[in-house]
Write a sequence for this structure.
């Protein structure tokens, strides 16, 4: 597609053709009704019986089915032409808008898309000091419009070619074929259900024109924004809408609470806590917590892009329960290396700010590793709060149901990253902290995750006894746990783990224990028996200090994410 072709295109012929096919479908439908009334109904009431009658009735029924199938196929041609008209018209409008803006800013666009301008400040046609920046922006818009038109051309051509082939070879007269074609056309207007295979979702998304994709985002942002297999840019657009709607809803609920009741009430001579205040405060605190998370997301999304703050993409958002959010630092569909960070206990919408900061730090660390190696590869780190995490150490973090309930969600998300990526992901890592390692471990054990590396930070156990049970090469399983990390106190509660710990403790008291230890969700990931590659830590670091400036774990994480040797 070139500028002149798209700019000068007159799509009235598409509308005319669409109208003609509508007329044809209507007329054809009338013929089918006439056939039913004049032939089929009369034959059925003719009292004609016998072998010949049976053959005739069977053939007439087949012909009726063929006529109905043909009518459906004609209608599908009309729908394809309508989609073509809308798709091309939208691309043309985007192109004309870009060209008009170029003219307004005194930029000259050549037929091949090249842009020139007058740099002389004394000239009447001087384009201004920002001409180069504007030229880059407009050039990108022109390219996007041409790409949009090409995409519409390819998708609609494929649909029309299929229908034309059906018409020429007779398969369009088959009821089953017509039913399948109708279902495929209807699917273009229906968002796949949550949990659909991300590769199928990506195929569906690619079958839409850009204009259809745009309408899906506007009309179904809650579904599109959280659907694995939809590209990151589209999910981000949908979730920007979800974010604002969620903010409005949370604010409405806060306003609806009204002023705080009195904290206490007098019962006779005693002052007692006011149950109404207790209820009000619980609701107010939870809504305020969500609003804090929303504000943090807005602030990060709107931050000026620099080395410390790469562009971000909101890949998931809702305020259900404690709220969920998935935020990518850099575009995971185009980055060479992609890492998914799964936080643990306490993870929710309201705590998202600290988790985003960790993703920023991991991108910086990976960039440092690449820079030292002379590698220009790019990195995306995704904060995945896409599950209901436990909110308390006791009793919730002792319950593995949170990890079990997250398995399908995490698996689908990781498969989706591969489905939407431009080509093959260079190095794919899943990195988790605290209970997040249990969530990741369960998903890897039961579902398998399509990753190259797994990094387990401060793990209370992963549900497996050995690194090899995570279904990837144990040499690419990494673990870190500081000596001062209180996670080491999360003692096993299962009989097998308690027995192993007791035996090792007895051995240790006699001077020959080997340190094999089990925590609440499985074997400690940093003991030799687990078989992971153990990362360096600050021995005095606490449970949340692995991302601190003085932590040797952070640069190690960066090297793993960047695909560089860990031990240097």
């Amino acid at each position: 597609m070139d500028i002149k072709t798209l700019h000068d295109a007159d799509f009235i012929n598409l509308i005319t053709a669409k109208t003609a096919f509508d007329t044809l479908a209507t007329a054809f439908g009338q013929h089918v009704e006439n056939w039913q009334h004049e032939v089929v109904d009369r034959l059925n009431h003719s009292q004609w019986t016998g072998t010949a009658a049976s053959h005739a009735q069977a053939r007439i029924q087949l012909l009726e089915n063929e006529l109905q199938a043909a009518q459906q196929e004609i209608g599908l041609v009309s729908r394809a032409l309508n989609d073509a008209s809308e798709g091309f018209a939208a691309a043309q409008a985007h192109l004309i808008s870009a060209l008009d803006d170029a003219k307004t800013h005194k930029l000259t666009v050549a037929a091949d898309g090249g842009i020139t301008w007058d740099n002389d400040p004394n000239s009447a046609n001087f384009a201004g000091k920002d001409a180069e920046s504007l030229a880059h922006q407009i050039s990108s818009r022109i390219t996007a419009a041409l790409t949009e038109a090409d995409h519409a051309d390819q998708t609609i051509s494929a649909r029309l070619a299929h229908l034309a082939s059906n018409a020429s070879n007779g398969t369009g007269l088959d009821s089953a074929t017509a039913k399948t074609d109708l279902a495929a056309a209807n699917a273009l207007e229906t968002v796949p259900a949550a949990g659909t295979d991300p590769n199928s979702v990506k195929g569906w998304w690619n079958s839409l024109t850009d204009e259809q994709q745009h309408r899906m985002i506007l009309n179904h942002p809650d579904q599109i924004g959280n659907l694995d297999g939809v590209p990151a840019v589209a999910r981000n657009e949908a979730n920007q809408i979800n974010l604002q709607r969620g903010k409005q809803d949370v604010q409405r609920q806060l306003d609806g609470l009204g002023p705080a009741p009195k904290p206490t009430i007098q019962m006779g001579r005693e002052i007692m806590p006011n149950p109404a205040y207790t209820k009000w405060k619980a609701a107010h605190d939870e809504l305020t917590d969500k609003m804090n998370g929303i504000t943090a997301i807005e602030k990060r999304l709107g931050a000026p892009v620099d080395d410390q703050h790469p562009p971000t993409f909101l890949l998931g958002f809702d305020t259900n329960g404690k709220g969920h959010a998935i935020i990518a630092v850099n575009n995971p569909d185009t980055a060479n290396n992609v890492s998914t960070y799964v936080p643990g206990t306490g993870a929710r919408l309201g705590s998202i700010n600290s988790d985003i900061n960790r993703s920023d730090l991991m991108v910086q660390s990976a960039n440092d590793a690449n820079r030292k190696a002379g590698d220009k590869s790019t990195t995306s780190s995704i904060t995945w709060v896409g599950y209901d995490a436990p909110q308390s150490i006791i009793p919730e973090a002792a319950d593995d149901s949170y990890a079990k309930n997250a398995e399908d969600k995490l698996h689908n998300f990781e498969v989706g990253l591969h489905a939407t990526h431009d080509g093959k992901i260079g190095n794919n890592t899943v990195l988790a902290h605290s209970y997040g390692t249990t969530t990741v471990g369960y998903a890897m054990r039961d579902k398998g995750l399509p990753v190259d590396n797994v990094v387990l930070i401060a793990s209370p156990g992963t549900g497996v006894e050995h690194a090899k049970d995570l279904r990837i090469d144990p040499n690419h399983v990494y673990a870190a746990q500081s000596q001062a990390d209180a996670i080491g106190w999360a003692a096993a509660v299962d009989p097998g783990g308690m027995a192993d710990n007791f035996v090792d403790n007895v051995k240790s008291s006699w001077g020959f224990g080997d340190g094999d230890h089990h925590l609440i969700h499985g074997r400690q990931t940093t003991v030799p028996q687990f078989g992971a590659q153990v990362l360096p830590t600050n021995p005095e670091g606490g449970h949340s200090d692995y991302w601190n400036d003085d932590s040797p774990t952070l640069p190690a994480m960066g090297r793993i994410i960047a695909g560089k040797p860990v031990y240097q």
Q: What stands out?
A: The longest strand covers residues 312-318. The mean pLDDT is 90. The first helix runs from residue 3 to 8.
